[in-house]
Amino acid sequence: MSKLGNLGARLHRGEVGYDFVGNRKLWYGISILITITAIVGLAVRGLNMGIEFQGGAVFNTPKTSVSVSQAQEYAEEASGHDAIVQKLGSGDDAKLRIQVSGIDTAKADKVSAELAEKLGVEESAVTGELVGPSWGEQIATKAWQGLAIFLVLVVIYLAIAFEWRMALAAFVALIHDITITVGIYALVGFEVTPGTVIGLLTILGYSLYDTVVVFDSLKEQTKDITKQTRWTYSDVANRSINSTLVRSINTTVVALLPVAGLLFIGGGFLGAGMLNDISLSLFVGLAAGAYSSIFIATPLVADLKELEPQMKALRKRVLAKRAQAAAQGTASDVPDSDEVLGDEPEDAAPAVVGPRNQPASRGRGRGRPSGKRR
Question: Are 268 and 260 in contact (CB under 8 A)?
Answer without folding.
Answer: no
